């Protein structure tokens, strides 16, 4: 870690409560935290001799935050060739029965690398529910180690897979496997083990939230009896999250399920609900009044089949973060892309170009996203005392020029590859788009190997074939 560093001559976009923007600004980093912010000349005078990093021609933002995604998704991009049902089939085969700790480690490293290169310094990955692995702690520990080696802050969310129990998972040894029948009690025990190992209450590089599945109408095989088991599972996971003092999250909410979650006692300021499409008016009120946070994923498949009323939620007083939902089946960790998608998604709904101004969209991947993760005192804005997490964006690009309205250029025109330098906890982890913590080729090679093995173990290799309807069709056949 660099003990002291003065970032100078940048357009400093603080995202502080006053939303200060300082042209020719500087940020002093010291012992992993922000020590001063202001005019470059003034800070040079106050801190003579401090090592400098030039941000001339660049914007200095707080590190971006992606408050909802899924472990495993970097390795299963586009499986099924555009058929969502086939992609889900592949995931439900690979994660519980084809994946090993090496698979999860390769995915964690690749995900962290992609996020880092897009300016994301704080991230979340769902590791429980819908097939992810909480049968043994080794899987999530391997995934978390990938983020640690790259140098990205990470919130990992182990939890219970859906009922009925026991769930079946495969433990692989070379080409052979052992089938494991895993009870809910065992999964909760693993959640507790992972919280003890990974929830760093002081350092903030690694945090834990617990995850429970959502029983929504229309999910195959969810009878009334099994729906009641979902309810019981969620209550047990929520009770554990409260006992351990960690946050709680659920993925896949839609109209009706938020009301059920409220009735089950799941909501609260430490709860983060993902998607939340097609909510009823009373559910919007329940979220806002309880202080529950929402992860809005405008680029996700869920946002195709229904709409998250993010605007209405925020107008009711709820905190909403714009998130990626992970990189599969067909997305990226580029939060600039997701901001742009969110703005147009809601403007189209209201038929009003005034909806979701760029500044609000930027809040939703910085300060609002930090609040959604319960980390608002640590990250999400450039303020004295907060963690020294910075994303420095090169503004001298044709698509970001002319430079007369840089805030609009950032939100409406920037892409993840415009991020030049990233600092996490005062440590430069990427400079001039070169990652300094890992060898990128090694991570790419590991990912290639592990997805190949997982496809073969699970019998999902045919899911990589490009379908005939890819070409010369207006719809997949």
From TrEMBL:
- Gene Ontology MF, one: metal ion binding
InterPro entries for the chain: Amidohydro-rel (IPR006680), Metal-dep_hydrolase_composite (IPR011059), Metal_Hydrolase (IPR032466), MQNX/HUTI_composite_N (IPR054418), MTA/SAH_deaminase (IPR050287)
Q: Residue limits of the Aminodeoxyfutalosine deaminase/Imidazolonepropionase-like composite domain? A: 25-50
Keywords, ordered alphabetically: Hydrolase, Metal-binding, Zinc
- Does the record's keyword annotation contain Amino-acid biosynthesis? no
A Pfam family the protein falls into:
Amidohydro_1
Signal peptide, first to last residue? none
Which stretches make up the Amidohydrolase-related domain? 60-429
> In which family does this protein belong, per the annotation?
Belongs to the metallo-dependent hydrolases superfamily. ATZ/TRZ family.
Q: Specify the protein name.
A: Cytosine/adenosine deaminase
Which lineage ranks, top first, belong to the organism behind this chain? Bacteria, Pseudomonadati, Pseudomonadota, Alphaproteobacteria, Acetobacterales
